[in-house]
Amino acid sequence: MISFLFFSIRRAWQGFWRNALMSLAATATMVLMLLLLAGFFIIQTGLLAALDFTEQKVEVVADIFDNAQPSQIEELRQRVLSLPEVAEVTFVSRDEALARFRERLKEQGEEDLSKALDSNPLHASLEVKLVTPEVFGDVVGMLREERIVEKVKEQQKLVDELLTVTNVLRTAGTVLLVVVGIIALFIIVNTIRLAVFARADEIEIMRLVGASDAFIRWPFVFEGAFVGFLGAVLTLVVLALAAEPINGFMLEFFQVLPIEVGSMTRGLVTLVMGTGVGLGIVGSWVSVRTYLIR
Fold this sequence. Notes:
Blueprint: H1 2-18, H2 20-57, E1 59-64, H3 70-81, E2 86-92, H4 94-107, E3 125-130, H5 136-144, E4 149-153, H6 156-198, H7 200-208, H8 213-241, H9 243-254, H10 265-292
Antiparallel strand pairs: 1-3, 1-4, 2-3
Helix pairs in contact: 1-2, 1-8, 2-6, 2-8, 2-10, 6-10, 8-10
């Protein structure tokens, strides 16, 4: 078994270079398909990261009546924090709210007219960060029943739109990755099939001397694996060289937290290498099997 394995690998290596032009054409096709697949993966990862970042910004803000006692506010904060759907609860005093308001005006370069007011018009509030935005309505309903809560600021429309976009993009991204993979498999199968036909005389001679289908098939399968592996390596080299421009594009396009290419490296390497070698093996297997059963 081991000797047959080494024989098949050696024959595959010889076949790869004996038909160098066809092998390089298959490898080039593999690289193009893997670059396209990697591009979809990077864009989808960036979109999902941007959506996750936006989801983290979804929060419930409950304005507190000015006559509420500190003990009442703290007791409510603890009860809200104990809810399983709540990640964090922050109390913002009236002075802190006014300071934030003035800071935002300063950042936007606008004139601060609040200094002309006799008193602080803003309310103290509880800012509730959620584990997931899906439980938005449950927390809002609970806060509205509290006597010391004057008003709960709603973002239901934003949350619904965000969840819709998230689900659509996740589904569409998965479908696109599958479609690109199928297209790549189709192209690789037909490219390797040409290599099989180019060696039809060799295969017929092997059959005439009594070679089994497995003996004929496995060198081609390993040859396909070589094509896929080489294509994956070249694709990863191209992506590594383009890492800095890609990172700059991601930052400029999504305008959210920095999305370092290194953070998705493991998934990208697994996708490219697994898809490349897998398509090479499957493409060779299908091509040779189709030829042998004729």
